[in-house]
Write a structure and sequence with these properties.
mainly alpha; Growth Hormone, Chain: A; 10 helices; 88% helix; MFS transporter
Length: 210
């Protein structure tokens, strides 16, 4: 596999991850707030509290992201955040308690931060320097791609269901998209490790190998 193709796969996967954690994990709540207010019987003061906790969690873990990267590898931190975000979106399809809603949406703020911050380190390790700026620009556009999908699907889902339907559909999309991306990145990592090992063997003198 060429270096260019490998980098392209990385960028596509990371863009999909940002779609999950930002467009789905961060922004669906605000897009269906009127439906949530009606279905759960909460007021807009409580909605403001949910948003405050969500943003506070995002800010805090954006600051802590660098420390987490020194403890957990960037790939594992990104993968874990994406999976947990997908699970949280799916879980909201079954939530009817306002306080549980607050807790889960707060966690989604954490997952968004802990997916994006280590991506900068991951890109620095796996993308050539000349392509890093362009790659990060494309990756960050995952939010826009997701919001376009939100705008297309959410009105139709609300017309044929309710807020819980929206969470369920996007939860399934998140889990499937996340699984494909994690599988692709893991396969690339194994392939790269195998090639590095083979290059090391090829450098060993013939007598030593014999």
């Amino acid at each position: 596999m060429t270096e260019r193709r490998r980098e392209l796969i990385y960028v596509c996967c990371l863009t999909g991850f940002i779609t999950i954690t930002f467009a789905f994990g961060r922004y669906i709540f605000s897009m269906i707030t009127p439906n949530i207010v009606k279905e759960l019987g909460i007021d807009y003061e409580f909605v403001g509290r949910i948003n405050a906790f969500h943003q506070g969690a995002y800010l805090l873990f954006s600051l802590l992201g660098g420390l987490l990267c020194s403890v957990v590898s960037a790939r594992h931190l990104i993968s874990g955040s994406v999976v947990l975000c997908g699970v949280s979106v799916t879980l909201l399809a079954f939530v009817n308690n306002p306080w549980v809603l607050l807790g889960v949406v707060t966690l989604q703020g954490i997952f968004a931060a802990t997916s994006w911050i280590p991506m900068v380190a991951f890109v620095a390790e796996n993308i050539q320097e000349k392509n890093r700026g362009k790659s990060l620009g494309i990756i960050s556009s995952g939010t826009s791609f997701g919001l376009i999908l939100n705008g297309v699907l959410i009105p139709w889902l609300l017309e044929n269901g309710d807020g819980h339907t929206v969470w369920l559909v996007f939860g399934v999309i998140s889990l499937l998209l996340g699984a494909v991306g994690i599988y692709a990145i893991t396969a690339l990592e194994k392939n790269s490790a195998g090639r590095a090992k083979q290059r090391g063997v090829d450098r060993v003198p013939g007598l030593l190998r014999g």
